[in-house]
């Protein structure tokens, strides 16, 4: 698939996560299968980040997009009953800004949490999931330190306030796998046939192989609340967080 394309679709979301509106052409459309565009900024879902919602606008008609399906092509799923633009139609694509922006802030916030918990408590991530504005992350942490909940909330918000830059780059596979931080996080999630690996680097805090969309610097995440720390198994701690606004 490569880094910039999924099937026939040029992915615009990876190069510019701030893009919300663009012109494109429908390559294939079917009310059951979905719609394939030549260029798309819809995040298709992956790495715990859910897919975008949005619309296609064409000839005075609106097609709501409520999800995606990843196969040989990147299929956009239209809302049931909405008209579907025929192949060859020029459309304006638009990603629902509120949902995507909250997902970007939430996703970057999880990387800050992951970086802080590894740096200060030595714990590895075992799983995560997110919705716009709220998320959970599981850590392998046999002993819960005193005041863990309050301490991680303070540490995470200190890194948000420090406004660390979030740098995205792609590296050749061998070079990416040689990064010590990559080994500890998600090396097993890098597809074996992928020759280039996308790296999300919260500079000075956390480096991960990651295909998601992120804010440009940690201040854009905004204040994070640690809602709850739960025990899920002997060594597994589930940390629930949410954006404060
Ligand atoms: Zn991530």
Fold topology:
Blueprint: E1 5-6, E2 9-11, E3 21-30, E4 34-37, E5 39-40, E6 54-58, E7 61-70, E8 74-78, E9 90-95, H1 97-121, E10 124-131, E11 134-140, H2 148-161, E12 166-172, H3 173-177, H4 180-184, E13 196-202, E14 206-209, E15 224-231, E16 236-243
Parallel strand pairs: 2-5
Antiparallel strand pairs: 1-2, 3-4, 3-9, 6-7, 6-9, 7-8, 10-11, 11-16, 12-13, 13-14, 15-16
This protein binds zinc ion.
Account of the 3D structure:
- The chain is of the alpha+beta class and 245 residues long.
- It folds into two domains: 5-95, Elongation Factor Tu (Ef-tu), domain 3 (Beta Barrel), CATH 2.40.30.130; 100-243, Threonyl-tRNA Synthetase, Chain A, domain 2.
- The protein is built from four helices and 16 strands.
- It has helices at 97-121, 148-161, 173-177, 180-184; strands at residues 5-6, 9-11, 21-30, 34-37, 39-40, 54-58, 61-70, 74-78, 90-95, 124-131, 134-140, 166-172, 196-202, 206-209, 224-231, 236-243.
- Strands 4-3-9-6-7-8 form a six-stranded antiparallel beta sheet, with no helix packed on it.
- Strand 3 and strand 4 form a beta hairpin.
- Helix 1 crosses helix 2 (148-161).
- The two termini are 37 Å apart.
- The mean pLDDT is 93.
- Zinc ion (ZN) binds next to helix 1.
Concise synopsis of the structure shown:
By secondary structure, the protein is an alpha+beta fold. The chain has four helices and 16 strands. Strand 15 and strand 16 form a beta hairpin.
List keywords for this structure.
single chain; 245 residues; alpha+beta; Elongation Factor Tu (Ef-tu), domain 3; Threonyl-tRNA Synthetase, Chain A, domain 2; six-stranded antiparallel beta sheet; four-stranded antiparallel beta sheet; 20% helix; 39% strand; binds zinc ion
């Amino acid at each position: 698939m490569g880094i910039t394309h999924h099937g026939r679709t040029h992915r615009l979301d990876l190069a510019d996560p701030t893009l919300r509106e663009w012109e494109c052409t429908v390559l294939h459309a079917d009310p059951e299968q979905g719609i394939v565009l030549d260029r798309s900024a819809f995040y298709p879902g992956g790495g715990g980040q859910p897919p975008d919602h949005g619309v296609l606008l064409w000839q005075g008609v609106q097609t709501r997009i409520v999800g995606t399906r990843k196969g040989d092509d990147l299929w956009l799923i239209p809302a049931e009953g909405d008209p579907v633009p025929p192949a060859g139609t020029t459309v304006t694509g638009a990603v629902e800004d509120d949902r995507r922006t909250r997902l970007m802030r939430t996703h970057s916030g999880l990387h800050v949490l992951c970086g802080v918990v590894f740096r200060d408590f030595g714990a590895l991530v075992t799983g995560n999931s997110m919705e716009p504005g709220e998320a959970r992350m599981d850590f392998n942490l046999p002993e819960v330190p005193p005041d863990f909940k309050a301490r991680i909330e303070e540490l995470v918000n200190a890194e948000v306030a420090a406004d660390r830059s979030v740098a995205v780059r792609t590296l050749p596979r061998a070079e990416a796998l040689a990064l010590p931080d990559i080994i500890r996080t998600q090396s097993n999630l890098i597809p074996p046939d992928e020759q280039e690996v996308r790296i999300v680097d919260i500079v000075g805090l956390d480096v991960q192989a990651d295909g998601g969309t992120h804010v440009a610097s940690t201040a854009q995440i905004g204040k994070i609340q640690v809602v709850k720390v739960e025990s899920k198994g002997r060594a597994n701690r589930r940390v629930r967080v949410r954006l404060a606004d």
